[in-house]
Amino acid sequence: MEDEIKMEIAEIARVQEYLRKSLSNNRVVITPPPRPDAPIEVYIADEFVGVLYKDEDEGEVSYTLMMTILEIDLPPTGSAPLTIK
Q1: How far apart are CA 19 and CA 16, in angstroms?
Q2: Would you call 75 helix, strand, or coil by DSSP?
Q3: What is the CA radius of gyration of the chain?
Q4: How confident is the model over 2-20, as pLDDT tens digits?
Q5: Which alpha helices (H) appear in the chain, and where do they start and end?
Q6: pTM for the predicted model, two decimal places
């Protein structure tokens, strides 16, 4: 995400509240970056889960949560059945 658009503290708080409600998890924490050029990190409790980006296109604002899942962190094959709605 090249030309990163900076996020204000109030925006970070709104996105954090949205994620907490959407994921039914009040342990979601978004940390404001320590430096203007640092990424905005997203945690669940103390576990880093991803990076948050803001995008503006033709007057519309959106936020992207980029989450990386390492294969080594996944449960063994067959131990987690897929639930289909």
Answers
A1: 5
A2: coil
A3: 15
A4: 455 789 999 999 999 999 9
A5: 9-22
A6: 0.80
Alpha-carbon distance values, 85 to 66, 77, 82 (Å): 24, 21, 10
The residue to which tokens 């709605």 are assigned: 85
**DSSP secondary structure letters along the chain:** --SPPP--HHHHHHHHHHHHHHTT-TTEEEEPPSSTTS-EEEEETTEEEEEEEEEEETTEEEEEEE----GGGSPPTTSSPPP--
Residue whose structure tokens are 């990190």: 41
C-alpha 64/C-alpha 18 separation (Å) is: 12
CA dihedral 9, 47, 49, 58 (to 10 degrees): 0
Q: Which residues of the chain have pLDDT under 70?
A: 1-4
- Name the amino acid, one letter, at 83: T
- DSSP state for residue 73 in the 8-state scheme: G
